């Protein structure tokens, strides 16, 4: 486990071992994906989109009709 301290400006220094595992360097971006309250998945934003597949689990199923209705509803807002 690695830890980092948050500065008064909200910044952290990511430990070298974590940077190496994520294969990130200065100037790269990180994604913070909320899994649930208090739990986030952190990944390099430079990774291929296919690597994101399946990262967020959902037990909810939705029909195409429900998706279309949701899109229409948001478009009319």
Number of helices: 2
**What class would the helix/strand composition place it in?**
alpha+beta
Low-confidence runs: none
What form results from the Cα inertia axes? elongated
Order of helices and strands: HEEH
Question: What is the CA-based Rg, rounded?
Answer: 18 Å
Most strands sheet: 2 strands, antiparallel
Name the beta content range: 15-25%
- State the domain count: 1
The strand count comes to 2
Topology, please?
Elements: H1 16-22, E1 30-36, E2 39-44, H2 64-75
Antiparallel strand pairs: 1-2
Structural commentary:
There is one protein chain. By secondary structure, this protein is of the alpha+beta class. It has one domain. The protein is 25% helix and 17% strand. It has two helices and two strands, in the order αββα. It has helices at residues 16-22, 64-75, and strands at residues 30-36, 39-44. Strands 1-2 form a two-stranded antiparallel sheet. A hairpin with a 2-residue loop joins β1 (30-36) and β2 (39-44).
Short structural summary:
With 77 residues, this protein is an alpha+beta fold. 25% of the residues lie in helices and 17% in strands.
Observed structural traits:
77 residues, alpha+beta, two-stranded antiparallel sheet, 2 helices, 17% strand, elongated
